[in-house]
Design goal:
single chain; 37% helix; 2 domains; 7 strands
Length: 241
């Protein structure tokens, strides 16, 4: 049976000489993998060039719950994201976020709230003309709301520590090693209060931004069963210094 769904592209992998596998997050089925021809002929209903990180597509697919890899019948652009392709900084951020989403979001079931969050965030990144060096930080913090481990900031006061293991601010150093120091904790609290409209208000050095990403990676690893290394992280560090 054929289904139509919107989808966000996370990655495309070569399968063999004839097929590729496209990993996407769909509106109707959650995370899914689709087998597609590599052919780019004039009669093809699928242009392989549309499968770039965070592309927003309309798909026609065969989908059976028992299958690990579904079959893709047709794909076309739902919303163009021109600047994600043409701006090298936004392209690097897109590559990083697509890889992160692919490793953090595993549920193969519909989650329309999450899909809407991803869709709106991609559009904001694409169209943003102001400073967006903190975009990925805000995105990753807010993504935790949909994954079930959004940090609890209610206990924050000056000179408190953020406990990464338990996801809250505490007045004394935890007895384990997974916590932020006082300066990092203060920055983390500021980050929790940012949104895409105010993200430029937090001024960070390249080293401090890099440090926050490393600690966010640790936070995800503590709260997800599996969270592999992000290969595109080095590219992101290079872009933002």
């Amino acid at each position: 049976m054929l289904h139509k769904t919107r989808a966000i592209v996370l990655r495309r992998l070569n399968y063999n000489d004839t097929y590729s596998i496209v990993r996407v997050f769909t509106e109707e089925f959650g995370a899914a993998s689709y087998l597609t021809y590599k052919s780019t002929g004039k009669k093809s209903k699928i242009a392989t060039s549309c499968f770039h990180p965070l592309a927003i597509l309309d798909l026609e697919v065969e989908h059976q719950n028992a299958r690990d890899i579904q079959r893709l019948k047709e794909a076309k652009v739902h919303l163009p994201v021109v600047f994600l392709l043409n701006n090298p900084i936004k392209s690097a951020v897109s590559l990083f976020l697509a890889e992160w989403i692919g490793k953090a979001v595993k549920g193969e079931q519909a989650d329309k709230l999450l899909f809407d969050y991803l869709l709106q965030s991609i559009q904001i990144l694409d169209l943003s003309e102001k400073e967006y060096a903190n975009f990925h930080l805000v995105f990753l913090i807010r993504l935790t709301q949909f994954l079930g481990f959004y940090p609890d900031a209610t206990g924050y006061v000056s000179e408190t520590y953020f406990d990464l293991l338990n996801g809250l601010f505490v007045p004394v150093k935890p007895t384990h090693v997974h916590f932020l120091d006082l300066e990092e904790s203060a920055l983390f609290f500021q980050l929790l209060n940012l949104n895409y409209d105010t993200m430029a208000g937090l001024q960070l050095s390249g080293n401090r931004r890099k440090s926050l990403i490393i600690r966010l990676t640790e936070y995800y690893r503590l709260h997800l069963v599996v969270f592999p290394d992000i290969k595109s992280l080095d590219v992101l560090h290079e872009v933002f210094g």
